[in-house]
Amino acid sequence: MKRVNKKRLMLGNEAIARGLIENGCSMAASYPGTPASEILTALFEFQKETPVARHIQWAVNEKVAFEIAYTGSLAGLRSAVSMKQVGLNVASDPLMSAAYLGTAGGFIIISADDPGPHSSQTEQDSRLMAMMAKIPVLDPKSPEQAKQMIRTAFELSEKFKIPVMLRPTTRVCHARQDIKIGLIKETDLRVDFKKDPTRWAATPKFRFHLHRELEEKLTKLAAYSDTFPVHLNPGVQTRRALVVSGVAAAHTEEILKDLDLFQTFSLFQVVQPYPLHAEFVDFLIGRYEEILVIEETAAVIEMQLADRHRVKGKLTGTVPTVGELLPETIQKVISEFAGVPIEPIEPPGTGGRRPTLCAGCPHRASFFAIKKAAPKGIYTSDIGCYTLGLNLGAVDTVLCMGAAISQAAGFYHAYKGEKKPPDIVATIGDSTFFHAGTAALIDAVTHRARFVLVILDNQTTAMTGNQPTPATLQRIDNDLFLNVELESLVQGCGVGFCRVADPYRLDEFVGHIKAAVRYSRKEGVAVVIARHPCLIDKFRVEEARQAPVRVEISDNCDGCGYCISHFECPALVMNPDKVVTVDPVLCSGCGVCLSVCPKKSIVEIK
Amino acid sequence: MPKDQSSKQQIIISGVGGQGVLFITGLLAQAAIDKNLPVFTSETHGMAQRGGAVVSHLKVGGFPSPLIRPGRADGLLALKTESIAPYRPYLKPGAWIVANATQEIRPDEAVTAFGVDAEQLAQKIDNPRSANIVLLGFALACMPELAAGQNKMFCTFDEIKAVLTKRLSSRTALRESSLGALAAGFNHRASNP
Predict the structure, then answer these.
(1) Banded model confidence at residue A5, pLDDT cuts 50, 70, 90
(2) pLDDT at B129
(3) How many CB atoms lie within 10 A of CB A548?
């Protein structure tokens, strides 16, 4: 008989999804964001291995995702919501309230942190959000442990009737490991919403009681044996302890073994950083003379160790408070703590090359047109691939999801007393507009703000791996979804100028932006929807690919560099002898650059 | 496992977004699993993938941490010549470098470096996007040339071929062209060592 290999190479996010599906998660929702995006994608895949229908969906934003998944819990089902750490900011409103109300079916909030940061606006620690909301949080050190913790999290949630957070970091989400595959179990949970208005619709008077109940839950959670810190080297007798959590636990274990220090310190992995087990705190302080805490990114465990005179960590400046705790950083901290010589290391570089929009990206054409039409404008932008419009000098501000529109309004209101106020052009992606743009647009229209809004409509959520948007869901399953059309939504917000145009037709497109700029100077918000599909959207490659336009550089290129600095296409390369050439491997054949060269030196190969 | 290969290995794979760093890392990691070796990789996702520098860490043989520390790696597979220098500090003395050498590789006495213009080879077989697989084939052919005591890559040409065949089993044309690219890189070295 053929031996079945039960181990599969899995991304941390896939391991988390596998944990959810093996433990009977019946409802899951998410909004994509690095490093959390692949959790839901993997759930869709694993779902195919089971005949039981689950509700798995991309939601319009994290708040909506949270509320839908949480309601699954109210109806008695195991459910989960996943997002990146800044997504949890968007979902913080339901989070704080759900902590008070509690759960019926097990409910897990997966909030993936990004110390570094590698692909985020902040390095914020979701464990602090758990602390603020007063819910327990589990902190996995590896994909394998993240998968195991899903089971623990459901059990905790059901036992204590409380939402439970799982907080992986980039190094867990985007590590791959050989993971043991388990059976997909179906739970015996039946959908059954038990009405209880004093809980599910609690008024302030009842909220007071719920708050007290929550505190009692936390006290019990701080004594719960299944999540007690793990002693990784129980035989060791010493007066010094290392307390670690998350991927820093994995780094520390490896470093101690490599440096022959594994027997020198007692090593504890905290699996539930909040609430920290009361007995563990007493034990640590009573037993050890020196305690070093290593965790990412805030001092969450450390600040719960009330007797501070023996504790070292972020609060004593022993462990860095900013940036990812790379293993080389941890090695230095441990060597100092151990009093052993510090190995000199040469820090690796970052590779030198900055990210850029893909060759043929329609956003590049849109940014070029915006700079042509409003060369002295203020350009507010948003979160997505198009943040890279920075390279083209077409992005002045990036704050958070949806802020391009409110910041454009803010600049308008700030400058409106001036004699010659600047043109203002906001750029926002289609998915980001659905996520957080409409409320801002309604506000701008209401308050008679005047600016141009270019919605960069590549008909996908590109940066995070081409997840659908409310305008494109239908292409996944025609029967299930109803599309919401972008232009009707814009018009519904009260906008008087709304045009749809293809940025690939650059000259025409510049004309539309110019018309919008003129309108915005006198009338109000002018919207141009720049519609062209993302070139790397695997779901619509055929559609995105027009017949390629082959281009070459004619002999009259004088190497002025205009196309390089103002268009920055990776396929246009400046040679050492000051002539531009076209890289045939990278060139997508979009043909937009034909209209870019002021000397018409980029020509089509007929 | 032959004596001159250790089951514990740490390899850095570097390049720029869109070159297929993740794909190569995945092939090597799967080869480890097929040999029943524990494996850990760490990847770059998100914004950096848009043409920026991309690096993977591959650790085979039971490591708790997903990241390689500087001075600890056994080898560096660089998909761009420019992707050698920033990651050179990860290598330990006696490590190997295999690089797509579209430019000259700076001499480095502490390590053994092999270079090939993988892009040119890929264009020669009419598959310009397969430079990553060409380079992997080339790397596998270089390994027997390492001295005793240097940690050769844990897997062989045939093992990678098997992974690639299985990975692309449903996509005949891509599978054949990828296997062709792997062989082109391998034979280039095997026939001109």
Answers:
(1) low
(2) 87
(3) 12
Q: Is B100 on the interface with A (CB under 8 A)?
A: no
- Chain B hits for A35, CB-CB cut-off 8 Å, are 45-46
What is the mean predicted confidence (pLDDT) over A24-41? 96
Express each pLDDT in A130-164 by its tens digit: 999 999 999 999 999 999 999 999 999 999 999 99
| CB proximity A201 to B under 8 Å | no
User: How many domains does chain B contain in total?
Assistant: 1
In this predicted model, what pLDDT tens digit does every residue of A564-586 receive, in sequence order?
Answer: 999 999 999 998 888 899 988 78
Domains of chain A: 7-221 (3.40.50.970), 226-338 (3.40.50.920), 362-542 (3.40.50.970), 551-604 (3.30.70.20)
- In angstroms, the CA B95 to CA B93 distance is 6
Q: What is the CATH number of the domain that holds B49?
A: 3.40.920.10
Query: Do the chains contact at A176 and B128, CB–CB below 8 Å?
Result: no
Q: Is the dihedral of CA A555, A560, A562, A568 positive or negative?
A: positive
Residues 83-122 of A with CB under 8 A from B: 118-119
Pick among B50, B130, B166 to test the A interface (most A CBs inside 10 A): B50
**A355 vs B48: CB contact, 8 Å cut-off?**
yes
Range of B127's domain? Answer: 9-188
- CA-nearest residue to A570 within chain B is B51
- Which of B10, B60, B67 is the best mutation test for A, with the most CBs of A within 10 A? B67
A 10 A CB-CB count for A442 gives: 15
Task: Give the residue among A494, A430, A433, A493 at the shortest CA–CA distance from A462.
Answer: A430
Q: Does B1 reside within a domain?
A: no
- Answer whether residue B3 is part of any domain: no
* Ordered mean pLDDT values, 10 residues apiece, chain B (193 residues): 69 88 95 94 73 89 96 96 93 96 85 94 92 96 92 95 95 94 94 76
- Minimum-distance CB partner of B30 among A9, A328, A351: A9
Q: Is residue B162 part of a domain?
A: yes
Q: How far is residue B28's CA from residue B6's CA, in Å, rounded to a whole number?
A: 15
The upper half-sphere exposure of residue A3, i.e. CA atoms within 13 Å in the direction of its Cβ, equals 4
State the nearest Cα–Cα gap between A449 and chain B, in angstroms: 32
- The answer as to whether B2 is a domain residue is no
- Rounded to an integer, what distance in angstroms lies between the CA atom of residue A311 and that of residue A226? 25
Place of tokens 């007797």: A307
**How far, in Å, CA of A405 to CA of A453, rounded?**
7
Nearest beta carbon to residue B47 from set A174, A331, A463: A463
Q: Which of A89-93, A440-444, A471-475 has the lowest mean pLDDT?
A: A471-475
B42 touches chain A (CB under 8 A): yes
CA angle A165, A168, A169 (to 5 degrees): 140
Please tell me what DSSP assigns to residue A394: -
Q: Which residues of B touch A349 (CB under 8 A)?
A: 85-87, 89
In this model, does residue A261 exceed pLDDT 90?
Answer: yes
| Distance of residue B15 Cα from the nearest chain A Cα, in angstroms | 8
Rounded Cα gap, residues B67 and A251, in angstroms: 8
Q: Which residues of B touch A332 (CB under 8 A)?
A: none
* Positive or negative torsion for Cα A75, A78, A82, A85: positive
User: In Å, how far is A358's CA from the nearest CA of chain B?
Assistant: 6
Of B16, B18, B50, nearest to A388 by CB-CB distance is B50
Q: Identify the helix (H) or strand (E) that includes residue A251.
A: helix A247-258
